[in-house]
Amino acid sequence: ETGVTQTPRHLVMGMTNKKSLKCEQHLGHNAMYWYKQSAKKPLELMFVYSLEERVENNSVPSRFSPECPNSSHLFLHLHTLQPEDSALYLCASSQDKGQGEQYFGPGTRLTVT
Amino acid sequence: DAKTTQPNSMESNEEEPVHLPCNHSTISGTDYIHWYRQLPSQGPEYVIHGLTSNVNNRMASLAIAEDRKSSTLILHRATLRDAAVYYCILSENYGQNFVFGPGTRLSVLP
Q: Which of B98, B99, B104, B105 is best to mutate for the A interface (most A CBs within 10 A)?
């Protein structure tokens, strides 16, 4: 247990569906991150939030929409995804942006059909 | 792009030391060197990090070359549970912009 939980652990969705991924951290951290890990590719940083404000958006398509309502929760809203968006989506947190180690959740395995 | 290069894979025997190399010839003065590992079906986990001096913790040791252009993660006694992908990462600006490379897949043989 890393103190970062993600739900659901597995998700299958059609290209016209709308779904959301949830991340919660119980560590009192101020920064949270979304990463994407596709098969046979390195982890890619998608979004960074610091004190509930988005501070980085690494050229992620608009069909991915993050939300950070408070410092403990992070969501990734998904709509009209493509099959190539199938991947493991990982959430992480750290004490502050750019400070300290990152704690990762177990990830959500997403399959887009 | 990742600023580090690592071997794609390595093998070790159980209970023997493992030295995982990482080259980072373009490292800047303010870059920290981080190591994470990812066990099967899990998210990455922090292993160790350093700036200039060698570092030790309960999991591993980090040996940093004097010119900082390379580093080595040392697992003192490999166990089967150490089989994972090990990532060497430079963090720009004291920890921002983590860029993961493909890492080294470590296999531990009983």
A: B98
